[in-house]
Amino acid sequence: MRVAIIDYGSGNLHSAAQAVVVVGARLSGACDVAVTDDPAVVAKADRVVLPGVGAFGDCMAGVRGLPGMVEALNDAVIEKGRPFLGICVGMQLMAARGLEHGTYKGLSWIDGDVVTLKTDDRQGLKIPHMGWNDLQLGDASHPLFAGWSAVPQVYFVHSYFFDCRDPGQVLATTDYGGAFPAIVGRDNMVGTQFHPEKSQSTGLKFLENFLTWRP
Fold first, then answer.
1. Which of 12, 112, 162, 209 is most buried per CB count within 10 Å?
2. Please, what's the b/e burial string for 112-134 (b: 16 or more CB within 10 A of its CB; e: otherwise)?
């Protein structure tokens, strides 16, 4: 299995890559993990991971700044249906638009906007949202959630969230001054607002499920 992790200068790239390597080593059969900025490598990959830390516009510009990368992603994920995982801002880039410090066009794979996370000051909740929170799963039988507890806990670091247009494409939510999408997905693609690589055994199990997922 060939896994391409897109390198466009994102801050959490290597921690995400190391987590995928660790999980891949547990599986039967070879798992070749490539951290790459080469569209040709993405084109040949069996699975694609897009991490992300930072502002939506900067991250999207980083992806678009790699010649041929957006086209390779669309071909691999949309045309060929290869499993895709977006992490944090990598998940947000799946949206139609990001409204962080301006308006920026995303990959438009899932309809919706990335908007600021707001809380009531009386709740004493800080922005950015940092720390462990429960997930409320939409369909606990989804293969990506295999081996999880009924109410899994995962680790978040973010100030914006994906306001998904279609509730059916929200696979899990988290409550932080109000519910917001924590996992979105459709067909062969999934995105997590939380960081699987920082979510200990729960996150590693999710990555294992992604590597064995047959959408």
1. 162
2. bbbbebeeeeeeeeeeebeeebb
Classify residue 197 by its DSSP letter.
G
> Catalytic residue at 31?
no
- The CATH number that domain 2-212 falls under is 3.40.50.880
Q: Which of 201, 214, 183 is nearest to 90 (CA)?
A: 183
Cβ-Cβ contacts under 8 Å for 192 (sequence gap 6 or more):
85, 86, 87, 88, 91, 154, 182, 183, 206
pLDDT in tens, 90-113: 999 999 999 999 999 999 999 999
Closest CA to 199 of 144, 104, 134: 134
Is the whole-model pTM more than 0.90?
yes
Asked if residue 172 lies in contact with residue 182, where contact means CB atoms within 8 angstroms, the answer is yes
Residue that has been written with the tokens 């949309």 in this structure: 78
Q: Which of 31, 158, 164, 197 is catalytic?
A: 197
Q: Is 197 annotated as catalytic?
A: yes
Q: Which of 31, 59, 88, 164 is catalytic?
A: 88
